[in-house]
Amino acid sequence: MRLHSLELQAFGPFADRQTIDFDRVSRGGIFLLEGPTGVGKSTILDAITFALYGPDRESLAPDRLRSHFAEPGVETQVVLELSAGGARWRVRRSPEQARPKKRGAGVTTQQASVVVERREGDTFRVVATKVEEASAQIQRALGLDRAQFSRVVLLPQGEFSRFLRSGDDDRRVLLTRLFGARLYDRITEELDRTRVDASRDLGKVREELRDRLSAACTAGALGDQRFAELANADAGMRRALLDEHGRELEARAEATRAEATRASAAASQAQRRADAAQELSTRMRRKLEAIDALSTHEATQPEHDARVARLDAGRRAEPLRPLLRALEGAEERAGAAQARLPSRGAGAQPAPDASSRDTHTERSRSLERDAAELEALAQEESRLPGERAALERLAGTEAASAAAARRATERREQLPARVLAAEAAREDLAGHAREVEPRRAALGRARDREQAASQLAALEAREARLISDRDGARDARRAAVDRHQELVELRLTGMAAELASELARGVPCPVCGSPEHPAPARASARRATVADLEAAVTTRRSAEQREARLGEELQAVSAERAACAARAEPRSAGEAGTEALERELAAAVDAARRLPEADATLRALREEAARVHEDEREAATRLADATTRRATAQESLTEREAKLAAAAAGHASVAARQRALREAAREEQALAAAIGEALDANAELARALAAAEADRSARGFASIAEGRAAFLPQDEHAELEATVDTWRSERARCEGLARAADLVALDPADAARITEEASGAIAAAEAAAAARGAAEGAALEAESRAQEFAKQRQEVERAERALEAARAQAEPLEQLAALAKGTPSERTGTAGARKMNLTTYVLRQAFENVVVAANQRLAAMSSGRYALTRVDEADRKADRVGLTLELLDHFTGEHRSTSSLSGGETFYTSLALALGLVDVVRAEAGGVELGTLFVDEGFGTLDPATLDQVMSVLDTLRDCGRVVGIVSHVAELKERVPERLEVRHRLDRSSEVRVVA
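The structure corresponding to this sequence follows.
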């Protein structure tokens, strides 16, 4: 991190805008922030912290934020430009503050605000405007939170020695963040999670083995005691016990199979005897059934004789059927003709004659003439429905005209509301249309974020490769430097030997001038030539150039990666996604597209309002005309209906009266025809009766009724013939069964004995079959139990193998997890190991480097008296091992606590430790880049000699490209540090800043 500029306005003691150019004041690597006590030097540090992290209730109280000297309308604001994480940033932040109302008297509260911008090319682009997003963005770029920033970058009054005297846990938190050691926490957590999973899997496998053992005991009918014995036995004993029980089950199955074979043979023999007895019993039952069936059939002989007589009478009566059918038809026609004659009251009906037929014929003709005279009036009457329909249409026209008039009135009354609705809809569309460009810009930002996210992984991989290459180049450069220094030393050592080789006795030495050469230097086996030195210089320069080139490329890639990371920042909770933004943009574009249509609709409604008044007037005129025409048609229809009612003469209508006359004429005509038909039917009946009487006597029937009774329907005749034939066939069958060859030798008297013997044989066969079934069931059960036990035994062996595999996997994981967590134990095989977790072990090595780097400066600051040492054990058991500090006093040779130092000693010791921490963090790959460091006070506790030593150490920081800002009011420092920020009081007691460089 490096600061470039800072602007303050209405902040602390600074009333108006103050601008600090850190680039200008930092050119020398060290600058002084000086001024009298209370003038506001620390306020500048507070402003830097406020710009990066916002207000803090403990360190930045409200009265240190808002300037009491500023005008009420001047906004409190801090603007900070810095470089961090490979990018240049600008942060603009304002706290919550009261300001005068823009309208009226009084004040209103202005909410806190922040804007974070990242430089892209020659311009700054906004990347965050919300407090939470801005804090997260800055913290990611710096790699430090507020507390860590205050301890590593800003060392204010009263907290300069906190890191020196802090406990192990506090040091561990800070060092973990600075050295990226969270990876080892995650490794420890992953090992512990894997251990828990493996332990859980091992428990499941153990439970599976118990389940398999339980299933095997159930299959082998082993009790709970044997199950407990198997579960607690080792694998070898368990296999022996299971083998023994398996053999017992196999022997039992073999014995039951032999018993089942014997029972099956006995059952087969008993079944053969039962079958023979059953067959004899069946033949005897057939003999008895045949005798019973013949006796029963002979008992139906009378019914058979009656059917034969009935069949003979029917055959004789069959020739009479046509004559009797003709007689029946004549009788039916005569009866029907008589029935059609009109009734004459009670008693016998008179015989029809020819005179009555003529009278009814003449009466029918008279009624037809009366009906014809009403034809004209009936036609006029038929036109009445059309006239009524026309009247209804006129009434409908009148009603439609009235409805049209009402609708026109309603439209006139509704149009103002419709116009207002159209105006509101048009304004709504216009509002959405105005959102097109903002929505398009938001969508562009979202797409840019997604594109940056897709590029980020490639840049991160490239950055990791460059870091690895840069580290390799750094190692190569260090090796080249070491080799060059080694060759220089060899060359210097060898130069004496070269000069000695040129010496001659009595010739003065070109170095000391003595002619005597008592001990000339001798050449060593290791020599360095000029060519070797030149080659080493070339190699060193090449390595330095490659390291510089890779460093520049890494810085460019880091900047590009940081830019992509900033662009790919996940959207906030309230920010819409790309799909939502696309829908919103589409809605806004659609609104813009529909806006002309809404304008046209509004114009059409306003034009329609002008037409509605004319439509209402025309509708009223049409209504008056329709009312007049309907009244005229109603009067004409009423007169015509009265005339036709008189012609109807009491009937429903003229047509009804006409139909009644014609119906009466048809009845008279029908009566005349019925009398004629009756005369013809009586003559035909007399002829048919004479023919039937003559044929009846010839067939041997006493009367026509007897002959008619002898008739047989065709289906009944066929049924009688079939019944007679069936009776005769059944008698022949029964006689054949009784005389069958296999039944002749049987005596019905032996039936009881044969049946009893068959029952006994069947019972014996059933008992033998039951015994066979029981034996076979027992054999099947024993064999099934042996097979199931063998199957479950295989499952037990599989579960044992799985248990061994799970145990082999779980035990190493448990040991690794215990070592990583620093919890050794006898059970994990790590007893005696040091109780130190993996992260602490790694941080201990890093802290060792910090202590070494700090001692390099502490030796110079303390004139070689003090050195910091790291000890593995702490005074308190709660402290973590490996991060505890002690002080070695070289003057006394004793180890002391850091709390025993004086004020000045504490200052320069903690300063040396802080600078050592900065050096190691800067050198560690992936660590936090600390380009600017502030030291706030403490120099007043140093004597002049110690101050010289401390300043000499700070001067060395400029060689590393870092900037140190010294916050002090010590006057002597002005002479030592030419670049400074002077903070002074004004006449009104407010403060101002001036850059001196």
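The chain has a mean pLDDT of 77.
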